[in-house]
Specification:
8% strand; six-stranded mixed beta sheet; alpha/beta; single chain; Leucine-rich repeat, LRR (right-handed beta-alpha superhelix); binds heme C
């Protein structure tokens, strides 16, 4: 039956063209790098957990192992990524986007196959991702400039992931006291690359929020325990990509929350310890 053979050959070659052996390196690592290693990697080790190497994953966290090779259901890692998005324990945390169903399926199959370091496992077919618009311009050409600028201000600008259009994270954690409105204003030349700004406990005030209000690609902003008020928060009202905003323990009241509530991308606002009600728009 020449006809059928022709079809089979065609399918086989199409399959070959798309085939990528499913291994820890080819399928699991990219998912962890995109979603997890920003908090569980070289920079930060939340819960004393690193997810940036096979060995580290098997070692687990402060509290012990996070996966049981061969048993996805009993694995803490699976439990964390399959919780409802509103659950306090869900990973990724801090309102970052949930894993896509096919990403969850890849992790599940990998653990079920014994979580091999190099051996192939039977992963679900790669579903072409809906092409999301890039989070920010390609950072490669300006990373050196950004690093130099930030270092001069006692701050850090680090890539959010290896995806070069995923933008940079502004970190102040080692010395939040050094970050003030003047420093924020000086970041203007690289502001379009900044997608996350960790400004909790910094000296940023309402004046600084006038600068930040122009950071068009900003998706996550942490202003907890700063001196900002509702007046400043209203200056964020054109941040069309802002997804999460932490205003906890600030002087912000209901007016500030109302000022940003209509932002199109906003998913979470934290306002604990303020005059505003805790809200989840
Ligand atoms: C924004 C930071 C952040 C991101 C991103 C993140 N985590 Fe976490 N993770 C935390 C924090 C903080 C804790 C400790 C608090 C807790 O247990 O909920 C934690 C705890 C965990 C634990 C529990 C460790 C234990 O003590 O048993 C697991 C498992 C975990 N994360 C997996 C992941 C996975 C998998 C991803 C990516 C899909 C991820 N995390 C992304 C911050 C993050």
């Amino acid at each position: 039956m020449p006809m059928r053979r022709a079809i089979v050959l065609f399918l086989a070659s199409a399959g070959l063209a798309a085939a990528e052996p499913a291994t820890f390196g080819s399928r699991v690592v990219p998912i962890l790098e995109k979603n997890c290693t920003v908090c569980h990697g070289a920079e930060k080790q939340k819960a004393e957990l690193r997810l940036d190497s096979h060995a580290a994953i098997l070692i687990g966290a402060k509290s012990g192992e996070i996966l049981k090779p061969g048993n996805a259901k009993a694995s803490e890692l699976m439990r964390r990524i399959t919780l409802p998005e509103a659950d306090d324990d869900v990973m990724p945390s801090d309102g970052k986007p949930h894993l896509r169903p096919e990403e969850i399926a890849v992790l599940e199959k990998w653990i079920a196959a014994g979580a091999p370091a190099t051996a192939e496992f039977d992963a679900p077919a790669m579903v072409p991702a809906v092409i999301a618009p890039p989070a920010a311009p390609d950072y490669r050409l300006r990373l050196a400039q950004a690093n130099e600028l930030a270092a001069g201000l006692g701050l850090r600008l680090v890539p959010r992931s290896r995806v070069v259009t995923d933008g940079l994270v502004l970190r102040t954690a080692s010395a939040p006291g050094r970050c003030d409105d003047a420093a924020i204003a000086k970041l203007a030349p690289v502001a379009d690359l900044i997608v996350e700004a960790e400004l909790a406990r910094t000296k940023v005030t309402d004046a600084g929020l006038a600068s930040i209000g122009t950071w068009q690609n900003l998706a996550q902003l942490d202003l907890a325990r700063t001196a900002v008020t509702s007046t400043g928060v209203a200056r964020l009202a054109s941040l069309a990509k802002l997804e999460s905003l932490n205003l906890s323990e600030t002087k912000v009241d209901g007016a500030g929350v109302a000022a940003v509530r209509a932002l199109p991308a906003l998913k979470k606002v934290w306002a604990f310890g303020t005059a505003a009600e805790p809200v989840a728009p």
